[in-house]
């Protein structure tokens, strides 16, 4: 009888179920993603070129606004102008995610950790949970830790402007799923993981322009996966055109 060599891949249902030595971002666990990326290599290269040009032009265009916001934050509250947080990029690559600081200094993330866990596991629409879905990072409505300037920045999404630097450095894209926090990833089911594997995270995305305030976590991930499946440069262009309207309407922004 001939012997046949078989490759076996273990897909743990939850982060805690995974063997300690298993890297859940190991590419061999997701052969379908590598194959899909190969077929779109040229298009992804053009996407990167557009990201470089777009982020550079946006930084130049918004330079006066960025400087003005930085001064306001500095004179109205103690602490740094920028908020830095470890996030997960494509295939779990860690990077420092940048935002204008909108909270008082020294905030503990324990409450946010529990809040994220509840939102993902219970999967309620964000408006039922007194939250604001900004990608996988949910913001608590009427959060007492928010500064007066921070509330305005969040409402107008101006706190996101520093992420143009993340795009310029190649850590993010202008359009894509929002980058996950490591402790958020720990609560993901298998199918949730695909939203951070195939493409780089983005500043804006499909679900942000389709009524984000009434979207629960699973629906948000489904929209991210739809974006990944249907991705094209034209889709990115349409999302970028719709983003200013979503910001003006203040969908889900608190």
Chart the SSEs and their pairings:
Blueprint lengths: L30 H9 L1 H36 L5 E7 L5 E7 L9 H13 L8 E4 L2 E4 L7 H9 L6 H6 L4 E3 L6 H4 L4 H4 L8 E3 L12 H14 L2 H17 L5
Parallel strand pairs: 5-6
Antiparallel strand pairs: 1-2, 3-4
What does this structure look like?
This protein is an alpha+beta fold. It has one domain. Helices cover 44% and strands 11% of the residues. The strands form three sheets. A two-stranded antiparallel sheet has the order 1-2. Strands 3-4 form a two-stranded antiparallel ribbon. Strands 5-6 form a two-stranded parallel ribbon. β3 and β4 form a beta hairpin. It starts with 30 loop residues before the first helix and ends in a 5-residue tail after the last helix. About 4% of the residues have low confidence.
Estimate the global geometry from the Cα principal axes.
globular
Strand order of the largest sheet: 1-2
Strand content: 5-15%
Overall tally of structural domains: 1
Task: Give the averaged pLDDT, no decimals.
Answer: 80
Question: How many DSSP-defined strands?
Answer: 6
Total number of helical segments? Answer: 9
Overall structural class, as computed from helix and strand content, comes to alpha+beta
The profile of the biggest β sheet is: 2 strands, antiparallel
Determine Rg (CA atoms, Å). Answer: 19 Å
Q: Give the distance, in angstroms, between the N- and C-terminal Cα atoms.
A: 67 Å
Any low-confidence stretches, pLDDT <50, length ≥5?
Answer: 128-137
Strand-and-helix sequence, N→C? HHEEHEEHHEHHEHH
Fraction of residues in helix:
40-55%
